[in-house]
Design a protein that fits this description.
alpha/beta, Serine Threonine Protein Phosphatase 5, Tetratricopeptide repeat, Rossmann fold, 3 domains, five-stranded parallel sheet, 18 helices, globular, binds flavin-adenine dinucleotide
Length: about 400
């Protein structure tokens, strides 16, 4: 089922983009809020796993969209894609929000007294119409429509009064597009932690309207009682992303954070060998693992052809095997697309000292897209959004 909905190849992603792009204007803006159910086509693009693992980039998706529509006509779609960019940049400058979430998840796992309530919510056995169906849909398909994610999170937090961090964990363990930034910050947004005091309260009327009358749950909370937390730390500067020396022989490390290194490292790069990481430990659940396993194989084939170098799959990121493979091909540096906050970034930080002591620096290179947009993710989405037209124009993507 998952493989049919989300074939894990770049060609499948490009085909989906080509088929969707004509519908990215009015059809998307007017239909995007409706979740017609898992068996219906709907107005959304279903590009999220491809964007999440960067088999397709935001730049390509917005480029294809603006190739067919004016920015004004496709404004809504462009903004939704840029929500992802915004969340990534926001978390990058506040990495402690991720560590705080992990601590809160572990604390709640150990101490929340009503394990049975968590179990019945995750199994779709609460008796709440819609909510139970979305829980089962998530388990079966690895995907939920954005509005269903919002309703589900809202009912989890405000009606069932379960800890938001355990709900975020449930999503991470089952979403094929599970992402540290988009998931954590969206759950925080629903809970009212992200935009201080602004909660998202799901209502039966809204659910009935935007599910085409499929669900009209009764007894939903009418008051949103916000969870509390220690204040989020101040914004940090973006971490430095190195520029690599294209003349030095390199070993290219490809991770699930960016499976299209061809558009990060251009022709001048002297890449002697490459390793594509598929480490189940850096992914949270079976849907994501099964998708990334296929996507890593697809990337390995492309990378070998593009850079004309021996390419292997790596099953875990341990310093000794990266050093051995880099040495084998005469590399003097390990280059990789920048890994944002999350388990891959943690693994890179863990092995970096051992590689450095062998004279093999790990050089992370950030995409021009992230360099342009992330610095503006300091406050809310509104001021970020104001910058979009100018930046897209500078990039030559819009007039
Ligand atoms: C509680 C909650 C948890 C979420 N968890 C994740 C997650 O783990 N991973 C993830 O990729 N998205 C997450 N989202 C955002 C959004 O729901 C999905 O990106 C979207 O539903 C994917 O479907 P689509 O590709 O058809 O989206 P479309 O509507 O076609 O949008 C196109 C692309 O824009 C981006 N996008 C759209 N809406 C959002 C949004 N609200 N926030 C961030 N990016 C967006 C996605 O990359 C998406 O593929 C979450 C939203 C909520 C409310």
């Amino acid at each position: 089922m998952l493989g049919e909905t989300f074939p894990a190849t770049r060609n499948a992603a490009l085909l989906r983009l080509t088929q969707f792009a004509p519908r990215a204007g009015h059809a998307y803006a007017s239909g995007r809020n409706t979740d017609p159910g898992p068996d219906q086509a709907g107005a959304v693009s279903k590009l999220s796993p491809y964007l999440r693992y960067r088999m397709l980039t935001e730049q390509e998706v917005i480029g294809a969209t603006l190739g067919q529509h004016s920015l004004q006509a496709a404004e809504k779609y462009v903004q939704e894609v840029l929500w992802r960019t915004y969340w990534k940049g926001w978390l990058e400058m506040r990495p402690s929000v991720w560590t705080q979430y992990l601590q809160e998840r572990d604390r709640q796992r150990d101490s929340f007294p009503n394990a049975r309530a968590i179990h019945s919510a995750e199994a779709g056995e609460t008796g709440i119409e819609g909510f139970d169906d979305w829980a089962r849909e998530l388990l079966e398909t690895g995907y939920l429509h954005n509005h269903a994610r919002m309703w589900f999170a809202s009912i989890w937090i405000f009606t069932l009064r379960l800890p938001w961090a355990l709900g975020a964990d449930f999503f991470l363990r089952h979403l094929v597009d599970a992402d540290a930034a988009s998931n954590t910050l969206s759950w925080r947004w629903v809970a009212g932690l992200q935009t201080a005091g602004k909660t998202y309260l799901a209502t039966s009327e809204n659910i009935a309207r935007f599910t085409n009358g499929r669900f009209a749950p009764k007894g939903l909370a009418t008051i949103a009682t916000m969870p509390t937390e220690t204040p989020v730390c101040a914004t940090l500067p973006l971490p430095y992303a190195n520029y690599f020396d294209a003349h030095k022989p390199a070993f290219l490390l490809v991770t699930p954070e960016d499976l299209h290194p061809e558009s990060v490292f251009g022709a001048p790069a002297k890449i002697n060998g490459a390793g594509v990481l598929f480490d189940p430990e850096t992914l949270w659940g079976d849907s994501a693992r099964s998708f990334v396993e296929g996507a890593a194989g697809d990337a390995a084939e492309r990378v070998g052809n593009s850079f004309k170098c021996p390419t292997k799959l790596l099953n875990n990121l341990d310093a000794a095997s990266v050093i051995a493979q880099a040495r084998e091909v005469g590399a003097e540096q390990v280059i990789t697309a920048y890994a944002p906050v999350g388990p891959v970034a943690d693994s890179l930080a863990r092995i970096a000292p051992a590689l450095a002591s062998e004279g093999l620096p790990i050089v992370q290179v950030r995409r021009a897209w992230d360099e342009s947009f992330w610095p503006h993710a300091t406050k809310g989405f509104f001021p970020f959004k104001e910058r979009i037209p100018k930046i897209l124009k500078e990039m030559g993507l819009s007039r």
